[in-house]
Prior knowledge:
Layout: H1 4-24, H2 42-48, H3 51-81, H4 89-97, H5 104-114, H6 121-128, H7 140-151, H8 156-168, H9 171-179, H10 184-214, H11 216-223, H12 234-244, H13 248-279
Helix pairs in contact: 3-8, 3-10, 5-11, 7-11, 8-10, 10-13, 12-13
Amino acid sequence: MFLAPYGVAVVLLIALPALLNFGYAFTDHTGLTRDPQFVGLANLRRLLADDFFLDSLEASLFHVAVSVPLRLLAAVGLGLLLAAPRPGGRWFRTAVYLPTVIPDVALAVLFLWVLNPLYGPLNQLLGLVGHPGFTWLAEPTTARVGVILMLLFPIGEGFIVVLAARRMLDGRLYEAAALEGCGPFGQLRRLTLPLLAPVLVLLVVRDTILTLQVNFVPAYVLTDGRPANATQYLPVYIFDHAFEFSGFAYGALITIVLMAISAVIITAQLLTVRRWRVLR
């Protein structure tokens, strides 16, 4: 009985839309009033010949390959650094978590100022060390870097998980390790990271799914997929086709591809972790 409301919500908000999305992918549905007609594999053939889709796929995979490790490293590093009681620790932990509660659109607008090539603070900091700075959002590579930099700030959820998991570890293990002559880096490598491994795997899986989806707002607000489709990630491409070009059915098919890519990446991550545990 307690699970019934959750089960109803899953059916209405997840399962039913997913089934409808799968069905629309094989039609000519435009998202308007006309009844969709079944077209078989026509959308799939269009997808295989779509160069813009390949650009979007490459941009999304690059974004995941760079952003997920950096976000995980930042969350784990700050979580372990701020786990021990220290003066002002509460304020530092609040400062790390605060960007997570800022709406994505507001954070993206803020980064339009941060990355401004003329008066943005990032270029001004680079100027202090003699670097002329970048036209961040006008070049493909730096535009991707700009989106990644923005998404390095809202890591509060992963930070809180690491912080809580570290505080749950038994302090006597560290006392015993210190008596055996194991220093801070040895304790990190031999105790902390192995004990936190299940939590870290969960964070990697979660952040992979999240990163493939939440790059929509920064890419749409910062660059609108430009320049040269460098930030035209799959969610942006799906939105453009479904709501800009009235290609609802084609957008539905790309959504299925996005889910399949997420499943493949997550499966590869879990198999890698399992193989690593067996080798150990």
